[in-house]
Design brief:
122 residues; alpha+beta; four-stranded antiparallel beta sheet; 3 helices; 21% strand; globular
Length: 122
């Protein structure tokens, strides 16, 4: 499921940013979407509940990437810990921050949370 979800969102993101003629790095934005969606699928997917991706282009050129999932908690957010070199997972948020995105998250009004990456156009 994660591969299909991440692949579909990468394709959607590239198409949307191309249509918008976004001045930022489409490759970086696509990778950020992929990392956030993969994290949501891996850590928060629940049967019968949706994951959502929302892309918003602000007048300033800044891109907002919102990934919402059904789990309200985000334990450890803000405590970026470098995983062991032998670990295959655990680098997603570090990658997102390394690409220049500002990360935040908020609990949903009823259930779940939204993780936001804000990425400036270059």
């Amino acid at each position: 499921m994660a591969r299909r979800s991440a692949a579909a969102t990468r394709s959607h993101t590239r198409a949307r940013l191309t249509a918008w003629e976004w001045a930022g790095d489409t490759g970086d934005a696509t990778l950020i979407v992929s990392e956030l969606v993969t994290n949501a699928v891996r850590h928060s997917a629940r049967p019968g509940r949706e994951l959502r991706l929302k892309l918003t282009l602000l007048e300033s050129g800044e891109l907002l990437i919102d990934v919402s999932d059904p789990v309200a908690a985000f334990p450890g957010f803000g405590r970026a810990v470098e995983p062991e070199e032998s670990e295959e997972r655990g680098r997603g948020l570090l990658v997102v921050q390394g690409l220049g995105a500002r990360l935040s998250w908020s609990a949903g009004p009823d259930i779940g949370k939204t993780v936001r990456a804000a990425l400036a156009a270059r």
